[in-house]
Structures are given as structure tokens and as C-alpha cells.
Amino acid sequence: MSTDTTCVFCDIVAGRAPGYIIHEDDLSLCLLDINPYTKGHCLVIPKRHVPWWHDLTEKETASLFAVARTVSQKIMEVYRPDFVSLFARGRRIPHTHIFLIPTFGDDMIDRFFNALEKFQESPPDLVRLRDNAVMEEVARALKIA
After folding, report:
1. Under the phi-then-psi rule, with left for phi > 0, alpha for psi from -120 to 50, and beta for the rest, what region is 38?
2. Which of 7, 14, 29, 32 has the greatest number of C-beta atoms within 10 Å?
3. What is the model's pLDDT at position 32?
4. Catalytic residues, which ones?
5. Which of 27, 15, 105 is nearest to 67 (CA)?
6. What is the pTM of this model?
7. Which sequence spans correspond to the domains of the chain?
């Protein structure tokens, strides 16, 4: 299904590289991250080489998030974390991948996002973004009819 021969994720999808595959459907697969933040840290990838998640087809998007949800439920059952963090990447390895990370209170990922949220609340440039006029302008610009 993939066409990029230089992408490690495409190589895993094609069976040319090893991967600890957890779950898959026709369009997506989930595998363990080889550099995990915690036990159970997984990546969900589309089988087709697509650098950015917002360029996936509707079917690929539905598949990616359905696989993510299914695996997250299993992670919750097995490891009993507080929650499973989910975020999308694609910059370092230019193939869409969603991180699923079991997160426990005060672990590294929890502390990172808490620090990021505190940062988000304080710099003057970001504080200005909360101004009602700016919020209305952005809402108008992004509103989908």
C-alpha cells in the first residue's frame, strides 16, 4: 500500500523492516514505539505514506482514530494509566504517526504537558491571543460554513 522506499514506517508496513505490530486494519496499523516513554507506548500510522495527518483521506482518518481508540482501550485495560495521551507527529519521520502514551500522574509526559499548559497561560504574546477581538477574528477566519 505504501510507495516510499526510504521511510522506516513504509518499510514496516511492507514487511521489509521489523516492528512489534499490535493491531491493524486495511488502512492503518499500530506498533510499539522502539524508543518508548513508558511501557505500552505505541504509534498508529496510516499504511499509505502521508507526511501530515490532515492530508489523509476521510477513510484513512477514520481508520487511524478507530485503531487508536481500540488500542488505547487495551492500554487502559492492561496498564491502568490515568489516561492515554494522544498527539500527532510527522516532522522527524515524515510519515503521519499518532503517539499513544499511557500517562500516569507526575510522570515525564504529564509534567511536560503541565509545563506546556503553564507556559501557554503566561507569555504576553500568548495572553494577547485570548483577547475577545482576537478570538472573534480567528473564529471568523476558521469558521467552516
Report:
1. beta
2. 29
3. 95
4. 97
5. 27
6. 0.78
7. 1-104, 105-145
